[in-house]
Amino acid sequence: MAAPLRIQSDWAQALRKDEGEAWLSCHPPGKPTLYGSLTCQGIGLDGIPEVTASEGFIVNEINKKSIHISCPEENASSKFLAPYTTFSRIHSKSITCLDISSGGGLGVSSSADGSMKIWQASNGELRRVLEGHVSDVNCCRFFPSGLVVLSGGMDAQLKIWSAEDASCVVTFKGHKGGILDTAIVDRGRNVVSGSRDGTARLWDCGRSACLGVIADCGSSINGVAVGAADNSINLGSPEQMPSEREVGTESKMLLLAREDKKLQCLGLQSRQPVFLFVGSDAFNCCTFLSGFLLLAGTQDGNIYQLDVRSPRVPVQVIHRSGAPVLSLLSFRDGFIASQGDGSCFIVQQDLDYLMELTGADCDPVYKVPETGP
């Protein structure tokens, strides 16, 4: 991967005024960092600033919300996107998790301030406060309907909420440690949770019951993902007849990002192992790209792309910085990743440059959700 480019987090505001400046840097691995700057030479009639770059950097293109910069010496090229809106009043402390409903209308987020809230995605207007977890909420997500929310907390409880009236309709108990991540199976009759107690559990939402411990790995499970398996992958057969309450688990893979540097994949219905991969550090997050390709991110900044059909050697390992990889999301023909140093970037196969989402100033970006259509 080309050397990462960095830009001042509020570059869009800084370059809006005459002679305004923003810093720029290129970080080639194993070589000294190259520093530069951007300067606004004036604002055009269309409201777009005319910007020049210092020696070693080139401005390829600019508009009101994006700027495309290259560093030819290092063959590095990034298009930086400024946020088109920012909601700063929803929470008072860092946001640990968020999700957007399938229709794109609502957002749900949890924060280090102990709160979990539902808000209007268009304007950030608060709609509901979801109260009931004891201590911090670690993860929250909408069900596919967009009307119901699933959350997991440090209180070892998994809860289902109505987004319409903020009532808690189901509470799952069984974990012995905080819940760190969840996944929804198909339309949501079943859900999966991963916990600090080292177990991944499958739950029946209709009867608020645990359908089984899918894995007990003796190490904290930081991230979970469920994906449909390609026909060529042998998921094994269940040792016991699955409960009729299991819906949509057949031909699904479960991926577990573990604290003990292991990435574990197993058949969701069969509970049989598919592979166990050892990485460079604790795995924080994971996601499926297809029926056989997956991504997983580590605490020391590595993003592993693996093929389930031959998982011993990674397809590729992407390393942009030593900051922890905190979130991974499949996006078009590529993915979006966020890290603990505030970087958030999009990799797409058909682009010869990276897209960088800017605005976070060195604060960790804990979660990147998909928005609606």
UniProtKB/TrEMBL annotation:
GO terms for cellular component: cytosol; proteasome complex. It comes from the Eukaryota. PROSITE patterns: WD_REPEATS_2, WD_REPEATS_REGION. Keywords: Proteasome, Repeat, WD repeat. Pfam families: WD40. WD repeats lie at residues 88-129, 130-171, 172-204. Signal peptide: none annotated. Interacts with PSMC1, PSMC2, PSMC3, PSMC4, PSMC5 and PSMC6. Interacts with SUPT6H. PANTHER family: 26S PROTEASOME REGULATORY SUBUNIT RPN14, MITOCHONDRIAL DIVISION PROTEIN 1-RELATED. Belongs to the WD repeat PAAF1/RPN14 family. This is Proteasomal ATPase-associated factor 1. It comes from Lynx canadensis.
